[in-house]
Amino acid sequence: MVLRAEPSDGTNAQDRLKQAAKEMALRRKKVPPPTVSTTAKPKASATKTQARAAVAVKAAFVPEGGAGSSAPLRGQALPLSLATDAYLDSLRLERGLSRNSILAYARDLARFADFVQTYDAAAAEDARRLDGRHALAYAVGLGQAELSVRSQARMLVALRGLSRYLRSENWIERDFAQEVTLPRLGRPLPKALSSEDIEALLRAPDTKTPRGLRDAAMLELLYSTGLRVSELISLRCDDVHPEYLRTVGKGQKTRIVPLGGMARQAITRYLTEARPSLLHGRAHAALFITHRGQAMTRQGFWKLITTYARAAGLRAAAHPHVLRHTFATHLVNRGADLRAVQAMLGHADISSTQIYTHMEAPTLRRVYKKHHPRA
């Protein structure tokens, strides 16, 4: 059986497949995936190029009976690498995932592709050969590797997503990963800094220098708003308002977060006393600028907070997400409404916010004495 009737221009299915692969390679080389950033919108030409590449892949694998047919593909091989590229494009173009999320999916699926190449090379050349045997063997291999349970679960989530996508596009006969179960995750409590530690960290930057003023504003803003580090470095100057700031989070969702007085003062000092000297006469839309006049990066801020944590004498691990945990934990421990905290953090599910409802014994005793009639 063949893939479909040959197109009228004489191009056969194999040529269409090669052309789709070339377009994919060209897109990866010339059109980087868009980042979650509010500094600038992706160019229309880049988005159109990505869309054309994704359409080209689908066009190379039209199910027998037409695009609307429920029958799976027949005849032409579907390389696993090309199927994975098409899935990553759907995550980028249809679900709007961030660049970092796309890279994480790509790494996890590359591991699966390496496994399949060794386990069954024929399935790597034609993904339609994949079945539950491959998925279960891969899951067993992850369990035998020196990987955390959370890493195993993440890799299997990526695999299940790929399998569901290929089935939804009618490129495979059945969801080959549907029988794979995720390992049970013990949900660890988030690590937060104490009030004393967070105060020491916020005092660490030298506010007599432009860089110190910038760093103090970034640390204060993270603790005062609970932003993710990717959201922090993506802020533009016009995202900050006197009483709130606007940020774009996961899934390109925009949310409004209240801006506290201390954070507002720190940002005002940075904008008036430090940012102009860091720009060196140039213009940039990003709020936080490096000494080279470019937008701050995740890696750059990670190094900064690690340096300040050592300078403050913190024994607890300090990384950007710890400030987000600290923001939420301190709010909840002081009686903040869980739904309000959920909205400020940008959590889609309240269960993600409930992990912050743990309280230390002294806090529990204070709450009990304040609210129980028999206390």
Describe this structure in words.
This protein has helices spanning 13-30, 44-60, 80-93, 99-119, 121-125, 132-144, 149-168, 195-203, 210-225, 229-233, 261-279, 298-311, 320-333, 338-345, 350-354, 361-371, and strands at residues 244-248, 254-258. It has 375 residues and is an all-alpha fold. The protein folds into two domains: 13-168, no CATH class; 195-371, Orthogonal Bundle (hpI Integrase, Chain A), CATH 1.10.443. The termini are far apart.
Question: Secondary-structure map with pairings?
Answer:
Blueprint lengths: L12 H18 L13 H17 L19 H14 L5 H21 L1 H5 L6 H13 L4 H20 L26 H9 L6 H16 L3 H5 L10 E5 L5 E5 L2 H19 L18 H14 L8 H14 L4 H8 L4 H5 L6 H11 L4
Antiparallel strand pairs: 1-2
Structural class: mainly alpha
Rough shape? globular
Main sheet summary: 2 strands, antiparallel
**Fold-level CATH name of the largest domain:** hpI Integrase, Chain A
> From the 3D coordinates, which CATH architecture of the largest domain would you assign?
Orthogonal Bundle
Report the span from N to C terminus: 79 Å
What proportion of the residues is helical, as a percent range? 55-70%
Order of helices and strands: HHHHHHHHHHEEHHHHHH
Strand segment tally: 2
The tally of domains stands at 2
Low-confidence stretches: 1-11, 25-50, 67-72
* Whole-angstrom Rg: 25 Å
CATH-assigned homologous superfamily of the largest domain: Intergrase catalytic core
Mean pLDDT: 78
Count the helices. How many? 16
The CATH class of the largest domain is identified as Mainly Alpha
Beta-strand residue percentage: under 5%
